[in-house]
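Hi all, posting the design record for the shared folder.

TITLE: backbone redesign
STEP: 1 of 1
STRUCTURE INPUT:
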């Protein structure tokens, strides 16, 4: 799971940097919250998850880790895609933001449970 998280973290980093570049070029920073969440929940958090799972491979080889990966990578695009479209169009997509957020939170809860139950000192 470590390598998977690190690879997808790189993708989110690229997306966040490109969004930041476009906002800077057009001098419109309406999508700053999307940019920040892609960086924090996409790039930084996923890179840290990947490093933890790489350093402690027994933690990364669990069903909890696999579920965490998929929940995070389903919830984050739903949450940020809904927010992006809501900001872009003005359409009310709060339900998508809430659903995506709850999916991410569930994935993070599984990550914490995994750490608390499977992480052992080397």
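Okay, here is what came back for every position:
SEQUENCE:
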């Amino acid at each position: 799971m470590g390598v998977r998280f690190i690879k997808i973290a790189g993708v989110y980093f690229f997306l966040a940097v490109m969004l930041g570049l476009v906002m800077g070029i057009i001098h419109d920073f309406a999508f700053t919250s999307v940019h920040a969440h892609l960086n924090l929940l996409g790039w930084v958090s996923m890179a840290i998850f990947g490093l933890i799972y790489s350093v402690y491979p027994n933690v990364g080889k669990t069903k909890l880790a696999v579920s965490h990966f998929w929940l995070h990578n389903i919830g984050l695009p739903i949450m940020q895609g809904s927010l992006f479209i809501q900001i872009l169009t003005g359409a009310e997509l709060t339900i998508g933001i809430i659903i995506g957020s709850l999916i991410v939170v569930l994935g993070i809860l599984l990550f914490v449970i995994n750490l608390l139950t499977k992480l052992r000192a080397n």
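COMMENT: The chain has one domain: 2-118.
Let me know if anyone wants the other runs.
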